[in-house]
Amino acid sequence: KGRKRHIVTDTIGFLLFIIVHAANIQDRDGAPDLLRAVGKRFPWMRHIFADGGYAGDKLRNAMGDEWTLEIIKRSDKAKGFVLLPKRWVVERTFAWLGRCRRLAKDWERTVESSKAWALIASIRLVMRRLARNCFAA
User: Fold this and answer.
1) Distance (Å, whole) CA 112 – CA 117
2) Model confidence over 3-62: pLDDT tens digits?
3) 3-state SS track over the chain
4) Angle formed by the axes of helices 87-98 and 111-134, nearest 10°
5) pTM of the entire predicted model
């Protein structure tokens, strides 16, 4: 029971694409669907940073030669919290989305409505950033 969100962000952390599916699907199994959808929407995108959950031959085979995948792994020697380059951008986006009450828990009955509310939260975030920088006090 539950949902898993796979997201693609830009380097600032703004949401570009999201796929929501059941929580019993592994990250590396859900990622090929995400990459196919992202490839259709953003055909110029070629480089993807991902965490260790996406490592594996299944994803690399699904990606083909048109994508480069860079897995950001945590060092085996590291103890406690370690800030990983590039990965914190996506984690920060999940934190921004988690600030919306509707997304803090899985209230939605359907995957489509869960995805829609995540997109609405992302639009709200971008609109607030634009409004903050566009209007002088």
Assistant:
1) 9
2) 888 888 888 889 899 998 888 888 888 888 888 888 889 888 888 888 777 887 777 777
3) CCEEEEEEECCCCCEEEEEEEECCCCHHHHHHHHHHHHHHHCCCCCEEEEEHHHCCHHHHHHHCCCCEEEEECCCCCCCCCCCCCCHHHHHHHHHHHHCCHHHHCCCCCCHHHHHHHHHHHHHHHHHHHHHHHHCCC
4) 100
5) 0.78
Query: Rounded to an integer, what distance in angstroms lies between the CA atom of residue 43 and that of residue 73?
Result: 27
Residue type, 100: C
Residue whose token pair is 């699904």:
62
